[in-house]
Amino acid sequence: MTTTASTPTGTEPEEPVRPHGTTGDDDPFDRDVLPTPPGATAALLRSLLAPMKPRVALTVLLLLLQQAAVQTGPLLVAYAIDRAVPAFREDRHGPLVAVGVGYLLCALASGVLQFAFIQVSARVSQDVLLDLRGRIFRHAQALSVDFHERYTSGRLISRSTTDVESLRELLDEGLQELVTVLLSFVYISAMLLWLDLGLGAVAVASFVPLYLLVRLYQRRAGRAFRSRSTAIASVIVKFVETVNGIRPVRAFRRETANEGEFALLNRTHERTNGDTLLEMARYVVGSRLVANTAVAGIVLWGAYRVASGSLELGVLAAAVLYLRRLYDPIDRLGMFLNSYQSAAASLEKIAGLLAQEPSVPEPVTARELPPLEDELPGREVVFDGVRFAYRTGGEVLPRFDLTLPAGQTVAVVGTTGAGKSTLAKLLARFYDPTEGRVLLDGVDLRELSVPELRRGVVMVTQEAFLFSGTVADNIAIGRPDAGRQEIERAAKAIGAHEFISALPDGYDTDVRRRGGRISAGQRQLVAFARALLADPAVLILDEATSSLDIPGEQAVQQAMATVLRGRTAVVIAHRLSTVEIADRVLVMEHGRVIEDGHPRTLVTTSGRYADLHRAWRDSLV
Amino acid sequence: MPTTRATPETGRSAVRALLRLWPYVRPVRARLFSAAFIAIVASCTGLVIPLVLKWMVDGPVAGQDFGGIWLGALYLLLLGIAEAVLFGFRRWLVARPLSHVEASMRADLYRHLQRLPIAFHDRWASGQLLSRGTTDLMLVRMFLAFPLTFLLVNGVTILVGVIIMLLQDWTLGLVVLGPVIPVMWTCAVFERRYAEVARRAQDQVGDLTTLVEESVLGIRVIKGFGRHRSQARAFHTLTAGLRGTELRKARLLAAIWAVIVTLPELAIGAALVLGAVRVADGTLSAGTLVAFLSTALALRWPVDSIGFLLAMSQEAATATERYFEVLDEEPERESATTAQAARPSDATTATGLRFEDVRFRYPDAPPGSPPLLTGVDLHIRPGESLALVGATGSGKTTLTALVPRLHEVTSGRITLDGVDITAMPRAELRARVAVAFEEPTLFSASVGDNVLMGAPEGADRADLDRALAVAQAGFAHALPDGTDTRVGEQGLSLSGGQRQRLALARAVVGRPDFLVLDDPLSALDVHTEAAVEAALREVLADTTALIVAHRPSTVLLADRVALLSGGRVAAVGTHQELLRDHPEYARLMSGAQQSAESGAPSGTEPGAPSGPPPGAQEDDPR
Question: pTM of the prediction?
Answer without folding.
Answer: 0.78
